[in-house]
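Q: What structure does this chain adopt?
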Amino acid sequence: MTIGTSLHHQLATRHFTRLDTDISNLQAEIAKGKADPRASVDPVRSLNMSATRDQSAMVEQFTENLERADARLTMGDTVLGTVGKTLNRLSEIAIRGASGSVSPSERESLRIEAVELRDSLVSMAQSRDSTGRALFGGYKTDRDPFIDGPNGVVYAGDSGRHTLRVSENAMMASGLNGQELFMEIEVPGADGPEVRDLFSVVDDLIHTLTPGGGARRDSITGPDAMRLQLGDTTGQVGMTIEGPNGTAEISAPYMAQSKDALIAAINAETATTGITAMIDPADPTAIRLDASGDITISKTDINAGNNRHDNMVQITPLAGDDADTPFIIVPSDETSNAMIDKINSTLDHIADARGEIGALQQVGERHRVGLDKRFEMVQRALAGYEGLDIAAAVTELQAMMMSREAAQQTYAQISSRTLFDFLG
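A:
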């Protein structure tokens, strides 16, 4: 194959261009302090760098998820802290409302405040995070988790706990759901602990402060005669009646328009109790009880459907020191003192929930420490792949420049010769 002058020039030009490019790239690497990341330069290093960058991006995503979870937990704890303060005030209202010295006007003021506090509790339960998602709705974060209707507050969320991934094999809860926070609270009941929702407990407290609510009691004793008023209650009525002769358990259906069944049930036990019943001549809506001695009514139980506030009896002694003073008789777990105990139980429940949130945040902090260390290791590895040995690179640059200079000199000498120089 014959090498002509033109081909010699082309090959030399390509070589010098490639050499200039390599020198320029190496100078750029030295200026940046980083090695050329292209796979064409070093395929193995490029592959390792790509895998390390993927790890770095993953750790950053886990850290971002952890920050989001911590933000939701912090907001939830703040809301529950305010809920606790509100319940503290309701406890104070319950204690004050249970006092017999409270005037009607003060009781009404307490009721108005309790209603406002109850509304604020509903509002707090509907809280949303910084992205507009419901804090206490479980997995249903796109709508209000609680519905306040005529029959009280109903939970419309679910029992799920919203979670975020904080490592390849770990999920972290970013909050508690409204079911466990507000709707499943263990409080004292007539037959032991029972599960109630926070809002119905507060509704019961408000009812004790309504006109005629008064300091509700679980029994009443008075001499000779009493007026028994069940209002518009319809349902099965049970109570314990004690008279001068003894005690009897009474149970009968009752309707405001027809009191005959209850009157008949009381009179069926007259021989046992010494108490007789009839329609009250002074008030046809009530039943009058008469006896030659003390009458005690206790352990009332009215199955009047879903409205707990119908589960009460108004008793008015017609003789003695409390004559013509109405009293509200309710089951023992619905007295004013029981309301105080239930409010305090809700306070304990919220405090426990805040403790659980604190525990979740501690778990998150441990994950954060691990992610920080992992991120540091990944960045160190990435720096190792991207880093450049400056001394070696400068030495290589000098060698390349010397090589270029020698090649240029050789090319110049060869290019300056002609055929006549060789023929001599």
